[in-house]
Amino acid sequence: MVYRLDDDLWFPDPEGGTDGLIAVGGDLSPERLLLAYSHGIFPWYPFKKEDWGDNLAPGEEPRIQWYCPLDRFVIYTDKVHISHSMRNLINSGKYEVSFNQDFESVIRNCGALRKDEEGAWLGPEITAAYTELHKMGNAYSVEVWDQDQQLAGGLYGVMAGKIFCGESMFSLKPSASKLALIYLAMLLKENGVQMIDCQMETPHLKSMGGVHITYEEYMRNM
Questions:
Q1: pTM for the structure as a whole
Q2: What are the pLDDT digits (tens) for 136-191?
Q3: Separation CA 18–CA 184 (nearest Å)
Q4: d(Cα 149, Cα 132) in Å, to the nearest integer?
Q5: How far, in Å, are 29, 100, 162, 197 from residue 133 at the CA level?
Q6: How far is Cα 63 from Cα 119, in angstroms, rounded to an integer?
Q7: Which of 203, 185, 205, 222 is CA-nearest to residue 14?
Q8: What are the two backbone dihedrals, phi and then psi, of residue 23, each rounded to the nearest 5 degrees?
């Protein structure tokens, strides 16, 4: 069952969702976003109108979709895989890595690289919502800089309890996003954070140590 949210701050039990989709509607207020992440729920913004078929009334705009997969794909911060080539890249000094120095450029680049993908969701409303979370101290970025001090890659996400919920990453130079993830995992581990929520499995993330766990185990780490 998929619920339609109203103006009240609430979410349905994730156990009743359909392929991870548990609700539509609501808003992107900081309060709703933080409530969502505290239960392992994240927004996936509107797809194209034609993808909704008969689920939209005439003239109705697509609504925010809220997901909570019961099969979670995560990386444990003490088990991130650093390949031989990545160790060489780290030791080469080719890039510098910073944290929370240019959140707006990171999220803007993440959106720009995905604007032509089917189901692209990182539009102005999402960008504004997460930028506000960043200003509140709940969303964080990792920046990778080349030797000319130009942004080469990065990622951003939201802290929820003791889980870092990764939202998006980008690379303008080879392996820059991998470097961002490795440095993030090291920083989180130093600060007692055990898990990075990857949301969806990709070959890239699986090669870096991503594993599947249950929703119950996920919430035990929250």
A1: 0.90
A2: 999 999 999 999 999 999 999 999 999 999 999 999 999 999 999 999 999 999 99
A3: 32
A4: 26
A5: 9, 12, 17, 18
A6: 13
A7: 222
A8: -160, 160
